[in-house]
């Protein structure tokens, strides 16, 4: 049976360790069509592409349910090279190029044209001579097709970022029989004019009857260049439609979606104080992958302030910059006192505690006991839990143990006792330890970054409710940075959405879904 | 019961079982060969305590994240300088002489350690290689210095040339055996048949261990260990990781200086020139045998490791001597054993790059 679709992924479901990340998703792409795939972080876009390319991570976690058809024929793609055989190519967000090779070599790597030589006839085909002229000609042809005027013999290392992306595209279209190209957020790292050019090239490629899957979160690009769009949310296909039948606001609204479940039962109390707890002025942070490019924010005392946005837009950079973990510029004041940004630990000394998003990397000493992890910061910042012998300040074991036992009870940390090593705790319990360590400092301002990443739903609820309690009962100012908008919307007084390293908008939690969606895509 | 045995086995590990078995095998082989097991035991005990502090010097280095300090020669050289200055001063009281030697040695070593630590901060990820060559270089440099430093005491310089230091300097007139003989006695017999117990030496070693144990539980010690285990974590708690690594290196180097003086007083001679060249390797091998990794070391690793490593050397040499007389095989065996142990332990370790 012949269908109109080049690619038809039917009723795809996928589970990771009991966690359903895709639920009966169908993705259909026609030849010569630019099909946009949009959704928040964690909506299932990457998983879907991993399935399409037969990435080992899929097979290694129990495979998937559903069917993949190419040109109407059911196919099994269980390894990346099979995907290539079927004519599926990918342009990566992080370039997969070899800097020390020329453009030609990069385009042709692994698929070199060669001529028989004396050695190859005696020994093996591996030893054939490269047909450099033919390779250069092919590369030239591919470059011409996308209208790129660079010499095929230059090294990739010196090229500007935008050009590297084009080389990558040239490599994909040089493959014979390419039928489907996936662009994974291709414009994320490009300047505006480069992005423009890339999108035009995409159109050009589509005219050659090659189907394109275009993954992006820039809805403006979708509206202007894509033919059709699929919206994913929480692993479900929400809508598939032609772009001309929909609007940007509609897509944005569907992308976010008011989710039925709420993480916490109570709501934050009313904000009374007008005093500014934390103020950022023209704040820049140089954190690779999470650059902050000039932010002004005023956070009031007793407020639960949410910072949201897609990953890579800079929301994580804000917290790491305040804590002095990455170099930053601008002005940060805590209750009117300006922080010395060049000094490590200045924020801690001024009563700001931080729970890092990178729990295992930054947040914990995995090889040490709960007790040690809990009191560590307090020892160094406030000289608590120490016996002062004048010459030497010794660890006060019994005091630390008592405190650890208190915190274990308070936060319901499931463990065998204060001496258990952190590495053997579950993710949720590790997170509670991180939180407990921050609280041991009795902070005036608590910054929690991705508080519920990688922890189960029960622990999630407990952690969030505890944060809410801290705020309502002790009046602690809390800043929550999270990729999960639902979380922020059920907890915060105000939410700032960060896009492109800047504050896109500051909104009330009950603002319409569409506005959140538009703010996140930088519109 | 079976699971408990398995757990114990997993905790001790096959390598340690082999090493302990080898040590016991050597001891049992000694008696039929006509060697005095008692004197071997005495030797083991003495060597354990005299090398102990040099092994202990590895702890702050490993804990602060620079890994096993192959460059301990830097501290050893500092200690040798302290000792030679003390002899040059001609201090009659051996106690004063050794304390002066230690103070001068540790001060020189601390300064060298701070410089060395700043160097290691620049070569994160390849500390082990760099420290090895720093150790070799300083020995070569000091070979020149020993010849040209203006020492004049008769016990120090070559009597015929009138300048340049000797290879082996007797400590008989200075602080030789001062710790060894303090409160010493013979166990299970008299001078010819008993086991010599160098009480003072053992006490000094254990006191050093106790001091290190306390240091690791102090505010600075805890910060230093955290910087070594997870530098990102330490930074997030406002700790200057580079400073902690320098402290670890300096303490390690200073302990190296004290260690060599304790070693020398027990040996009775000060050995200059190339003698300390491989001492770093022996210290590293000992602590690794004791169960330390390149990322984590405890005081018990030091005590166990120094005992096993020095025990095997102390017993293996006479045994091999008896089995294969009139050969230089014992020395070859010693090199094979010590380097083999290092190779084995390092192949198990994850390498220095992990703490970059």
How many distinct helices of chain B? 15
Helical content of chain B stands at 55-70%
Main sheet makeup of chain B = 2 strands, antiparallel
Strand arrangement within the widest β-sheet of chain A reads 6-9-10-3-11-12
Q: Report the total helices of chain A.
A: 19
Could you characterize the architecture of this molecule?
The complex is a heterodimer of chains A (about 525) and B (about 350). Chain A contains 19 helices and 24 strands. Chain A has a 6-stranded mixed beta sheet with strand order 6-9-10-3-11-12. The two termini of chain A are about 45 Å apart. In chain B, the strands form 2 sheets. Chain B has a two-stranded antiparallel sheet with strand order 1-4. Chain B starts with a helix and ends in an 8-residue tail after the last helix. In chain B, strand 2 and strand 3 form a beta hairpin. Chain B has a domain of about 240 residues. Helix content of chain B is about 70%, strand content about 5%. The C terminus of chain B is likely disordered.
Helix-strand layout with pairing:
The complex is a heterodimer of chains A (523) and B (356).
Chain A (H helix, E strand, L loop, with lengths): L6 E10 L2 E11 L4 E5 L6 H8 L3 H4 L5 E6 L2 E3 L4 H6 L2 E4 L11 H6 L5 E2 L2 H5 L6 E2 L1 H14 L15 H14 L5 E5 L7 H16 L3 E5 L3 H7 L2 E6 L2 E7 L5 H9 L19 E10 L6 E9 L3 E5 L6 H8 L5 E7 L2 E2 L7 H4 L2 E4 L3 H5 L6 H13 L3 E3 L4 E3 L1 H14 L16 H14 L4 E5 L7 H18 L2 E5 L3 H7 L2 E6 L2 E6 L5 H8 L3
Parallel strand pairs in A: 3-10, 3-11, 6-9, 9-10, 15-22, 15-23, 18-21, 21-22
Antiparallel strand pairs in A: 1-2, 1-4, 4-5, 7-8, 11-12, 13-14, 13-16, 16-17, 19-20, 23-24
Helix pairs in contact in A: 6-7, 7-8, 10-19, 14-15, 14-16
Chain B lengths: L1 H11 L1 H17 L6 H20 L1 H7 L8 H16 L5 H29 L4 H22 L19 E3 L7 H4 L3 E3 L7 E3 L1 H18 L2 H11 L1 H6 L4 H27 L1 E3 L7 H11 L9 H25 L5 H20 L8
Antiparallel strand pairs in B: 1-4, 2-3
Helix pairs in contact in B: 2-14, 3-9, 3-12, 3-13, 3-14, 4-10, 4-12, 5-6, 5-12, 6-12, 10-12, 13-14, 13-15, 14-15
């Amino acid at each position: 049976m012949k269908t109109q679709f080049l690619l038809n992924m039917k009723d795809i479901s996928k589970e990771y360790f009991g966690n359903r990340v895709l639920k009966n998703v169908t993705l259909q792409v026609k030849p010569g069509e630019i099909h946009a795939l949009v959704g928040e972080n964690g909506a299932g876009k990457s998983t879907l592409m991993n399935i399409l390319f037969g990435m080992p991570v899929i097979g290694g976690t129990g495979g998937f349910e559903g069917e993949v058809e190419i040109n109407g024929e059911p196919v099994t793609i269980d390894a990346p090279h099979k995907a290539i055989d079927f004519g599926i190519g990918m342009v990566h967000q992080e370039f997969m190029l070899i800097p020390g090779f020329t453009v030609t070599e990069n385009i042709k790597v692994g698929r070199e044209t060669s001529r028989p030589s004396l050695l190859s006839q005696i020994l093996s085909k591996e030893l054939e001579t490269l047909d450099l002229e033919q390779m250069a000609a092919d590369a030239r042809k591919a470059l011409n097709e996308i209208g790129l005027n660079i010499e095929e013999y230059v090294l990739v290392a010196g090229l500007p970022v935008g050009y590297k992306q084009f080389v990558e595209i040239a490599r994909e279209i040089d493959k014979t029989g390419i039928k489907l190209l996936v662009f994974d957020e291709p414009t994320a790292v490009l300047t505006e004019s480069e992005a423009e050019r890339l999108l035009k090239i995409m159109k050009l490629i589509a005219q050659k009857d090659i189907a394109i899957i275009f993954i992006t979160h820039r809805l403006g690009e979708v509206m202007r260049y894509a033919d059709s769009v699929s919206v994913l949310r929480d692993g479900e296909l929400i809508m598939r439609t032609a772009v001309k039948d929909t609007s940007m606001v509609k897509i944005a609204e569907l992308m976010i979606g008011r989710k039925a479940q709420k993480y916490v039962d109570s709501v934050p109390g009313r904000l009374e104080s007008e005093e500014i707890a934390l103020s950022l002025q023209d704040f820049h942070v140089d954190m690779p992958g999470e650059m902050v490019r000039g932010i002004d924010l005023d956070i009031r005392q007793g407020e639960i302030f949410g910072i949201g946005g897609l990953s890579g837009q800079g929301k994580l950079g804000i917290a790491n910059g305040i804590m002095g973990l990455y170099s930053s510029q601008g002005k940060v004041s805590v209750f009117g006192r300006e922080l010395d940004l060049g000094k490590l630990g200045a924020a801690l000394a001024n009563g700001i505690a931080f729970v890092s998003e990178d729990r295992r990397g930054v947040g914990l000493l995995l090889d040490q006991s709960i007790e040690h992890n809990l009191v560590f910061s307090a020892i160094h910042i406030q000289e608590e839990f120490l016996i002062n012998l004048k010459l030497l300040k010794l660890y006060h074991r019994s005091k630390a143990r008592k405190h650890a036992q208190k915190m274990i009870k308070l936060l319901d940390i499931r463990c065998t006792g204060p001496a258990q090593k952190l590495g053997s705790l579950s993710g949720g319990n590790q997170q509670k330890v991180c939180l407990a360590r921050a609280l041991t400092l009795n902070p005036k301002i608590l910054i929690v970054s991705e508080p519920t990443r990688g922890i189960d739903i029960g622990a999630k609820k407990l952690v969030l409710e505890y944060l809410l309690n801290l705020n309502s009962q002790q009046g602690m100012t809390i800043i929550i940075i999270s990729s999960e908008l639902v979380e922020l919307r059920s907890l915060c007084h105000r939410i700032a959405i960060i896009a492109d390293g800047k504050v896109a908008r500051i909104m009330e939690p009950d603002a319409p879904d569409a506005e959140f969606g538009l703010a996140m895509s930088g519109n | 019961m079976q699971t408990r045995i398995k757990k114990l086995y997993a905790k001790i590990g096959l390598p340690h079982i082999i090493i302990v078995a080898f040590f016991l095998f050597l001891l049992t082989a000694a008696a039929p060969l006509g060697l005095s097991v008692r004197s071997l035991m005495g030797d083991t005990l003495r060597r354990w305590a005299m090398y102990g502090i040099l092994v202990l010097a590895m702890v702050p280095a490993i804990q602060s994240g620079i890994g096993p300090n192959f460059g301990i020669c830097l501290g050893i050289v500092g200690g040798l300088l302290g000792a030679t200055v003390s002899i040059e001063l001609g201090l009659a009281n051996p106690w004063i002489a050794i304390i002066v030697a230690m103070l001068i040695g540790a001060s020189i070593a601390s300064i060298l350690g701070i410089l060395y630590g700043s160097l290691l901060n620049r070569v994160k990820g390849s500390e082990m290689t760099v420290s090895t060559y720093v150790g070799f270089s300083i020995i070569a440099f000091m070979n020149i210095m020993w010849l040209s430093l203006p020492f004049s005491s008769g016990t120090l310089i070559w009597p015929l040339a009138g300048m340049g230091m000797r290879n082996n300097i007797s400590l008989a007139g200075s602080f030789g055996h001062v710790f060894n003989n303090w409160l010493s006695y013979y166990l299970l017999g008299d001078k010819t048949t008993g086991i010599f117990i160098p009480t003072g030496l053992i006490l000094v070693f254990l006191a050093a261990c106790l001091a290190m144990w306390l240091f690791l539980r102090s505010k600075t010690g805890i910060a230093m260990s955290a910087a070594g285990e997870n530098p990102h974590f330490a930074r997030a708690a406002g700790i200057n990781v580079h400073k902690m690594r320098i402290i670890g290196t300096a303490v390690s180097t200073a302990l190296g200086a004290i260690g060599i003086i304790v070693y020398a007083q027990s040996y009775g001679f000060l050995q200059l020139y190339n003698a300390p060249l491989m001492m770093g390797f022996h210290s590293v091998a000992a602590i690794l045998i004791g169960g330390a990794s390149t990322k984590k070391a405890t005081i018990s690793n030091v005590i166990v490791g120094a005992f096993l490593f020095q025990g095997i050397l102390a017993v293996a040499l006479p045994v091999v001597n008896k089995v294969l007389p009139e050969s230089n095989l014992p020395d070859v065996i010693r090199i094979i054993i010590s380097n083999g142990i290092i190779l084995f332990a390092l192949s198990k370790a994850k390498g220095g790059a992990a703490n970059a």
